[in-house]
Amino acid sequence: MNNNQEIAWITDSTATLPEKFIKENHVYVVPLSIIFGDESYLEGVDITAENFYPKLASSKVLPKTSQPAIGEFVELYNKLKRKYKRGIAIHASSSLTGTYQSSVAASSMAEFEVEVIDSKIGSYPLGQMIYKGVELQNQGKSYEEIVSHLRTLPDKANLIMSPGSLEQLHKGGRLSTTQAFIGSLIRLKLIVRFDDGKVLLFDKIRTDKKVKEKLFQLFDEASDMVKEASVIHANVKETAETWRAELAAKYPNITFTTTTFSPVAGTHTGQGTIGLAWINEK
Predict the structure, then answer these.
(1) CA distance 141 to 76
(2) What letter would DSSP give residue 162?
(3) Please, which residues bridge with residue 5 across strands?
(4) What's the rounded Cα separation, in Å, for the pair 226 and 279?
(5) 183: part of which helix (H) or strand (E)?
(6) 88 in Cβ contact with 10 (< 8 Å)
(7) Where are the beta strands (DSSP E) in the chain?
(8) How does DSSP assign 13-49, residue by residue?
(9) 3-state class (DSSP) for residue 126
(10) Which of 24, 168, 233, 280 has the most CB atoms around it within 10 Å of its CB?
(11) pTM exceeds 0.85 for this model
(12) How far apart are CA 203 and CA 218, in angstroms?
């Protein structure tokens, strides 16, 4: 068996990986679901960011999300063990979804050796962890070396953002009632960030201009440890592209991209969310 077929890569749809990369690198994506009333859609299969956000804007009910059933993982792992020696799975934060726990349990049930890693985050940083793992594999690193390196990344991953909807963040259980109430009462714009897998309130700001200044300041403080970063957004592509261009001009040694929040992430943060994400190199 050649090196490329020794390892199956598994993640979930919140990683927003390009289809070309998935097909070329033995990556298997388990989709989460978005539920609008009686209608359920598999993220990345039945609904994409391009058609999710218009639907969110016109919907009279707030959508909900659902993690994959454990049976989906068991079925996948039973299939993969016939083709691969073992797997590496990296999933969205276990504090926000049970996807990680289902993957762990299914690996045992299917008797397929999978190192399951809690990314403690989602979106761009989660996708970057898969990229980095595949890169190490292509460099000829051993399974153990790859896993060892990947397990250092969750504590180096960063995602700071200003949510577009406090109501959605609160209803999804990602923000306390008090935080959401205070924010909406005085029309504050909140800045939240991931900390050990949880979304925590970081700051309260009054204007979009001040939000941008604060997010750029936080990035600047970490910039000497960053090689790649992304402006993450929920359907505000023009603003995200403007931010990307400004950051690229200021930090010529860092590669900047834009990343659209997946439907599941957008369900919880709301249309208009914008932020910055990266993984520290040190």
Answers:
(1) 25
(2) E
(3) none
(4) 7
(5) helix 177-185
(6) yes
(7) 7-12, 27-30, 33-36, 39-42, 64-66, 86-91, 114-118, 157-162, 189-195, 198-205, 228-233, 255-260, 274-279
(8) GGG---HHHHHHTTEEEEPPEEEETTEEEEBTTTB-H
(9) helix
(10) 233
(11) yes
(12) 11
- Rounded to whole angstroms, the Cα distance separating 189 from 194 reads 17
In 94-240, the DSSP E strands lie at 114-118, 157-162, 189-195, 198-205, 228-233
232-257 residues labelled b (16+ CB within 10 A) or e (exposed):
bbbbbeebbeebbeebeeebeebebe
132 C-beta neighbours (distance < 10 Å), count: 17
Closest CA to 162 of 62, 270, 56: 270
> What is the per-residue pLDDT for 170?
53
Distance of alpha carbon 215 from alpha carbon 145, whole angstroms: 34
- The type of residue at 178 is T
Q: Which of the 8 DSSP states describes residue 214?
A: H
Amino acid at 249: A
Residue 235 CA to residue 213 CA, distance in Å, equals: 20
Supply the pLDDT for residue 164.
85
Give me the tens of pLDDT residue by residue for the chain, a chain 282 residues long.
344 478 999 999 999 999 999 999 999 999 999 999 999 999 999 999 999 999 998 888 889 999 999 999 999 999 999 999 999 999 999 998 999 999 999 999 999 999 999 999 999 999 999 999 999 999 999 999 999 999 999 999 999 999 987 665 555 555 555 555 555 555 678 898 999 998 888 888 888 899 999 999 999 999 999 999 999 999 999 999 999 999 999 999 999 999 999 999 999 888 999 999 999 998
- How far is 237 from 233, CA to CA, in rounded Å? 7
CA distance 148 to 136: 11
